[in-house]
């Protein structure tokens, strides 16, 4: 990303702490790198320590190159702060261990970017007996968010954010059915890999809405994004950051870029903004079924049930309580 980036080039508070899931590669890498270059402390949460450490070294090298070029807004003293913490979102136990490790570190948290995800692939199930893409793209990162939000609320900051990296692909999801989100009904015969991916992106947009209903008096706002795009040849580099942010139009494939994700995470004018889905750094329309309040609450109810062994009663109570807008 060169000088034409759309996100603000303003130095961030050096004490601001940002977690970027899947921050070792693809758009997550660019998001983590630029936020760190603007001054925040960044934790990249991913599976592979080796790949994460390689990514951090590459970020530091690219930071020095940007500094030599005189890139506006980036910090000019010292080095960027990027830390690796291990998590495997295909495992609820691993996700919970990450949560406990981060809590015990004593760090504050101001921004959570839920970027990690899987794209097109065969039908697989996790050790938790959930369909793999559903768990990695949505369920485990929902678990992460609801556990870490109290840290954000007590961070002392008046602008904390959760960015859910979805996709315009959510428009192509199956009609919502709460009884089938876990994927136990799927077989090799009825499995559609793109529609399955689209379903997981739909759940993220719905998550934005049901979380914000419960955060109106909070310092936390939740937004969702579709990554910015550039066109390239059809079929080239079919997988992008293990997050399949692709949308097919004729003979071109539109691939991921990180501007919108960074914009949603740091733009000062978005302070307190909720329930907005951004594409190309502008508000965009979500699908009609993602805006169905009854379905949003049904998704939340099923999610809490699937996570009951990993969340304490006070968190269950907070999220299962019906907001006055629905009562």
TrEMBL record:
InterPro entries reported for this sequence: NAD(P)-bd_dom_sf, SDR_fam
EC number(s) recorded for this UniProt protein: 1.1.1.300
Coiled coil: 46-73
Keyword entries, A-Z: Coiled coil, Oxidoreductase
GO molecular function: all-trans-retinol dehydrogenase (NADP+) activity
Pfam families, alphabetized: adh_short
Entry keyword Coiled coil: yes
Protein name (record): RDH12
Native source organism of the sequence: Mytilus edulis
Origin organism lineage: Eukaryota, Metazoa, Spiralia, Lophotrochozoa, Mollusca
């Amino acid at each position: 990303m060169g000088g034409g980036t759309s996100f603000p080039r303003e130095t961030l508070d050096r004490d601001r702490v940002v977690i970027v899931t899947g921050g070792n590669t693809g758009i997550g890498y660019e998001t983590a790198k630029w936020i760190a270059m603007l001054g925040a402390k960044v934790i990249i949460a991913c599976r592979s320590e080796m790949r994460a450490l390689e990514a951090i070294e590459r970020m530091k090298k690219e930071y020095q190159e940007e500094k030599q070029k005189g890139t506006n807004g980036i910090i000019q003293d010292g080095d960027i702060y990027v830390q690796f913490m291990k998590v495997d979102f295909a495992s609820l136990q691993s996700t919970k261990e990450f949560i406990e490790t981060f809590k015990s570190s004593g760090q504050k948290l101001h921004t959570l970017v839920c970027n990690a995800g899987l794209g097109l692939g065969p039908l697989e199930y996790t050790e938790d007996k959930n369909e793999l893409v559903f768990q990695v793209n949505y369920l485990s990162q929902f678990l992460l968010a609801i556990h870490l939000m109290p840290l954000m609320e007590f961070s002392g900051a008046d602008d904390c954010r959760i960015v859910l990296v979805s996709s315009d692909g959510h428009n192509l999801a199956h009609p919502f059915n709460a009884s089938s989100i876990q994927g136990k009904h799927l077989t090799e015969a009825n499995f559609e890999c793109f529609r399955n991916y689209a379903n997981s992106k739909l759940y993220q947009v719905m998550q934005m809405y049901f979380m914000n209903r419960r955060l109106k008096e909070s310092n936390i706002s939740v937004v969702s994004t579709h990554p910015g795009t550039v066109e390239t040849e059809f079929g080239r580099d079919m997988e992008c950051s293990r997050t399949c942010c692709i949308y097919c139009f004729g003979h071109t494939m539109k691939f991921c870029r990180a501007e919108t994700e960074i914009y949603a995470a740091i733009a000062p004018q978005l302070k307190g903004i909720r329930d907005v889905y951004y594409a190309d750094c502008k508000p965009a329309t979500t699908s009609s079924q993602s805006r169905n309040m009854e379905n949003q609450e049904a998704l939340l109810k099923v999610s809490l049930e699937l996570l009951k062994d990993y969340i304490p009663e006070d968190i269950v109570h907070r999220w299962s309580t019906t907001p006055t807008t629905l009562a």
